[in-house]
Structures are given as C-alpha cells and as structure tokens.
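Just wondering, can you check both lines?
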Amino acid sequence: MLRGIRRLLVAAFLPCAIACDPGSGYKTSYRAPTPADGGNSQDVGALVEWMKTTFGGIYRVHSYLVADGSCSASGTDESAQLMAQYFWVNAFEGLGATTEACLCGNTQEECRTFIAQERAGALVACLLQRTATDKVNDHAITHHWQQAGTPDGNNTCVQGGSEDVTFDRNADQIQVDHEQTLVDYPVTDGNCTDARGDAAAHGVACTHRDVLVGTWVASE
C-alpha cells in the first residue's frame, strides 16, 4: 500500500485544484510503472535502492517558483511562504518503486523527527507532496497522473485533467517539477473518470507549474 494513503495529505499554499484534502472528492489516479517505461522491467527492490541512492536525503529549499495560468519557465519565487524550508526525498516500494518528496521542517533535526515519525507509522502531514515512479535516465524520474475531477450536478466534471511530476538530480541539487492541466468536461453515464479527464486535457495549454529546487544537506 502506498505510504501516502495513511498520511494526512495537506496542501502547502496551493489552491484546491492542485492538492486537496481527501474528503473533498478530488481524485488522482496512480498508475504503476510498466516494463515499457522502466518501472517493473527491473527488480523493484533494486530500483528502490537506486532511487534512494540517486535522490534520497534531506534538502534545503533553494527556490519554489510558481506560475499560475500557464507553464511558463519563469514564475514567482514563493519559497518564503512555504511552511518549511527543508524537504525530504525518500523511495519505497508502493505500487512499484516510488520516490516521494515532502516538506519536513525548518531544521535538519525537525526533518529527522518527521522521518522517524513517518517510519514509525504515525499519521504525519506530507506538505507539498510530490511523487514519481518511472525512470527516465540515470538522474531523472517522472510520473503522469490522471485526474477525474468531480461532478458539479449540472452534467459537468469540474477540474479534471492531468499532471506530470519530474525529479531531476544534478550533483547536490535536485529539481522537482510539477505541471498541471485542469479542464471541465461533460459527464458521461453519470460519471467522471480518470481516463476521460486525462483525454480532455490532451492538447490543452498547461494551467499551472511549480518548481521546487533544493540543495542536498544530509543523507538523513
């Protein structure tokens, strides 16, 4: 089971379109990695270890660029507004090998406390959660998520679409890139589905991008 399922998922200074409390009805599907994209073509345990070695550790926030309304390469640095200035990148076996980033505290010690609580099975708040599963090359992984959206009672699925997350490590710096496309589309057979939300977003201009950049400070 994905570790994130047992967590209290909290959005850090992002609108509900980007991350919501699970009770809001906002849905995001998880697609396990396939042999075609480098996920399960390897032993999952070995891939998890590679992810830990390549991406794992505690990072100090360098910048957090946010562009609303587009996926512009530029954006406003909102790092000062984040609830924590350090984040933890970890890898584990979920539905395949999975890498996850969470804000963890304002000091390394706070992050180590967060890590210990998470590993003890405590309900912890994974702020600004980002997750990827699919190996791209020797320094990057990615994942494509599908979003069903929610019916509004007027035969429209609201805020469906898709999002893409990429982790890219370069020496002591990591970049976690999150792009999202939100669309409204017609309800079919009374339902909003991940696949239809994803299809409706195809070819539509991206509506949000945020890029978290951090500098590695400790293995844990």
